[in-house]
Design a protein that fits this description.
about 325 residues; 14-stranded mixed sheet
Length: about 325
């Protein structure tokens, strides 16, 4: 998932000009920096998982083949989000948010956009309408500017308990950030579902697959997770996972997150971590429950290892990022 920090795009600049015309006295934010996603409120944790390969978690060397390892991934999916405070009125923040997602297909070693589903781009303007009553007529409306459609979203609506948010600007900004994050996930899931419905081959998804039941049950989908806020190991298993060498994976285990679908998973070391952080080159792979899942784990691990070349430089996450995912991010940066 890409979080862009590039300069404002043409659609954003046009929307900002229109807003300033409609809101006399609005204070634009000089340079309007993009905001990072709100970190999870959950602390980093170790969590036990049900071992599906043997009785204890262990390190397993990926079997080599007589021919050089190659990848059978047909396509890659990733999403992007941009959240920017562009101004304020009476101290109440006005926020632009853009979420996007794309599937890029590999054809003759070249990456092209999947022809069956176009890239998805959704643009939102987040304003606290309750605290800016002069904008009451903006409810359930949209703003069309120079070919781009921006939906107006109220950041001051009541929660499920009927309580309205504080007027603290940080609270309202956080609401906007979380909304854009959810929208990005929705767009990614729509594209993943569409790919799995056609069954066009294996899809490399940047991130997990358990949040969507149809994707989590499809043999087409492979999720590759680069961040490890939750580690599904405890006790000696932690030492084994952090001690994996390049080309080794952990035993397969079952991940059953609350309110999500159950999937099979394992850790895989992509690069030599000597002299590096313990998480260097470490990813966690997710697939649907299936027959011959142990053989499948070795097969998919070879594919993921093969995707470590070419390098995804100059991205700082190149130790864990497949080049196909970087291609998705570069494409989304160009169109959103």
């Amino acid at each position: 998932m890409l979080v862009s920090n590039s300069s404002p795009d043409a659609a954003s600049r046009a929307a900002l000009r229109s807003l300033m015309e409609q809101l006399p006295g609005m204070s634009a934010v000089e340079g309007g920096g993009y905001l990072e996603p709100v970190a999870s409120n959950d602390p980093p944790v170790l969590r036990s998982a049900q071992i599906a390969e043997g009785s204890t978690l262990r390190a397993i060397r990926i079997p080599t083949l007589s021919r050089p390892a190659s990848s059978e991934f047909e396509a890659f999916l990733d999403g992007s989000q941009k959240v920017q405070v562009v101004g304020h009125r009476y101290g109440m923040p006005i926020v632009f948010g853009t979420a996007s997602a794309v599937v890029r297909v590999r054809v003759n070693r070249r990456m092209i956009t999947w022809g069956h589903q176009p890239p998805r781009v959704e643009r939102r303007i987040f304003v606290p309408l309750r605290y800016l009553p002069e904008l009451a007529d903006w409810r359930a409306s949209s703003l069309g500017v120079e070919g781009a459609q921006w939906q107006i979203i109220d950041t001051s609506t009541a929660d499920r308990n009927g309580d309205y948010p504080s007027q603290h600007p940080a609270v309202l900004i956080e609401r906007a950030i979380r909304a854009v994050d959810v929208e990005r996930e929705t767009l990614e899931d729509l594209l993943a579902e569409a790919w799995c419905a056609r069954g066009d081959g294996s899809l490399y998804i940047d991130g997990g697959i358990s949040r969507n039941a149809r994707v989590a049950s499809s043999t087409c989908a492979v999720g590759v997770i680069k961040s490890h806020r939750t580690l599904y190991v405890e006790g000696d298993a932690l030492r084994i996972v952090l001690g994996l060498e390049k080309g080794e994976r952990s035993s397969v285990f079952r991940v059953s997150p609350r309110s999500r679908s159950s999937v099979m998973s394992w850790y895989l070391r992509l690069r030599d971590a000597k002299g590096r952080d313990a998480m260097w080159g470490l990813v966690r792979v997710e697939i649907a429950e299936c027959k011959y899942q142990l053989e499948r784990a070795d097969e998919i691990s070879r594919w993921v290892l093969a995707e470590t070349t070419p390098l995804s430089l100059p991205d700082g996450r190149w130790d864990k990022m497949a080049y196909g995912v970087r291609d998705c991010e570069e494409f989304l940066r160009a169109i959103s």
